[in-house]
Design brief:
about 220 residues, alpha+beta
């Protein structure tokens, strides 16, 4: 267990700060019962200067400028926290998921220089509207984490209505992600942070990340 925890801590500390913060925001959204997506806007030096999480389904717990509205995607809340005078041409918008067309348009309209995302959007993939080919998680572990959190938030929201179509689809196209999702305790997480939530499962996550790398290289 000690080596497993050490392995997680080494990998977590090695990940870029905006990646860790975006995942932490997605975890906050998941723990609050919302849709698990987080986004961070960084300056030219990679320092986070604005952030947001998906709050479209939250009225009381969120703090973003658009909370409780259909516009309250993580990327929109991050951009809404930026200031008009900022030069966003040198900024990077990080997201845990592939941004939807609304968020892509908002990033283009505001002049954001670069958009990076950790994982393909499960909703977009299941409906055939997303490619996900530009996902850039750095390490494959973070792709699995981002989408496992997303899937868990959808599964919890759809409990009682049968298995979510997104989860069913992902069992075929992303078997490692769904295997990691299924290995986690049921329901919403109660750990204080994503680090505390993920650390006990790091060995399984590392094995599944390796399996995904081997599968996608074929």
């Amino acid at each position: 267990m000690a080596n497993e925890q050490l392995g997680f801590d080494v990998e977590w500390r090695a990940a870029p700060e905006p990646l860790r913060r975006a995942l932490a925001l997605a975890y906050e959204a998941l723990a609050a019962g919302g849709l698990a997506v987080g986004a961070v806007l960084t300056d030219t030096d990679g320092k986070p200067v604005a952030e947001g999480r998906n709050e479209a389904y939250e009225d009381g717990t969120g703090t973003g400028p658009l909370r409780g509205t259909p516009l309250a995607h993580a990327e929109m809340n991050a951009l809404g926290a930026a200031r008009t005078g900022w030069d966003l041409a040198t900024a990077t918008l990080w997201s845990t998921q592939e941004p939807c067309s609304m968020c892509v348009a908002a990033a283009e309209f505001t002049g954001v220089g670069q958009v990076r995302y950790l994982a393909p959007d499960p909703w977009a993939l299941s409906s055939g509207t997303g490619a996900g080919s530009a996902a850039d998680p750095g390490r494959p572990h973070w792709l699995l984490v981002a989408n496992a959190m997303f899937l868990r938030s959808v599964v919890v929201a759809s409990e009682g209505s049968g298995q979510s179509r997104i989860l069913t689809h992902h069992r075929v196209v992303e078997p490692e992600t769904t295997a990691f999702h299924d290995s986690l305790p049921p329901g919403l997480p109660t750990a204080a942070s994503p680090e505390d939530w993920l650390r006990p499962h790091w060995a399984a996550l590392a094995d599944l990340a390796t399996a995904r790398e081997l599968r996608t290289r074929r």
